[in-house]
Amino acid sequence: MLFLWQQVFVSSKNVLLKDEPMHSFFCFLLCFVWLPFSAFAQKPDEQVPYRMNVKLEGGVPHGLSNKAFRRSFTGVYEIQFSTSVEIFSGFSLGAAYRNTLWNTPDNKIQGINTNMQTNGIGLRLGYDKRLTRTAFVFGSLTAGRAFTRFTGLIYETDSLLAASGGVVDAYTYNYGELQAGVYFYTEGNFAIGLNTGITFTNFGFDPYKLALDQHKPYIDSDLNGNVVQLNLGIHVLFGFIKKQGAADTGTGE
User: Fold this and answer.
1) What CATH number corresponds to the domain at position 88?
2) pLDDT over 90 for what percent of the chain?
């Protein structure tokens, strides 16, 4: 897991340093993620009431980098499914699966309908902290591997394309995600919340390998940096194995 994070952050370093708005957002999100970690020991009335949870997230991804990727694709949806178990005083460890779909709309590339479908799985380290009887905040770090396939590519075979190795429509790469959010228990062990996150990859998007340059012009600087995305969404959470001594959520459980 540490190796994957090293690869992802090293590959994303130049993007953060060159993009001031993204750098500011990243610093804000990092502080928000780590804010709950400032207090390790939790009193009974601060504890998360369940030792295990299952979470389903849904949202729309937004491309931040690289420029060629932003100019070509728009996020359609992202779904994440995760499960985690508390290991120590609010800290949890688990696994997360993600499925993401991107598309080429007419306002970016006319005349084609190319999809970018990504599946990923990773390990997640999280921390949850109680704010009130029913409200909680959380932060998490996820590192994993992703597989992306492009479909609906339209191109004419020519000598230049063949010389560059032809069309490559499948890629495997590392990713890392910083995420933070808030959730509220509404009934029993059921909660609903909001989340935001930023995902870094070591995937260098290249439109030439997808023959997208046959439909839209690109310049060399468009290829600088790896794919980075902003995630905004909502989630539902189910808690299991209630702790003894932890204050309940006051939702009729």
Assistant:
1) 2.40.160.20
2) 62
Each residue of 89-109: pLDDT tens digit? 889 999 999 999 999 999 999
Contact between 243 and 49 (Cβ < 8 Å):
yes
Q: Structural domain tally of the chain?
A: 1
Tokens representing 225 are 């940096």
Q: Which residue is associated with the tokens 């299991």?
A: 240
**38 belongs to a structural domain:** yes
Q: Which of 129, 175, 121, 132 is nearest to 32 (CA)?
A: 129
Range of the domain at 45: 2-242
Give the number of other Cβ atoms within 10 Å of residue 147's Cβ.
13
Is 247 within the bounds of a domain? no
Please tell me what DSSP assigns to residue 245: S
Q: How far apart are CA 225 and CA 240, in angstroms?
A: 41
pTM of this structure: 0.80
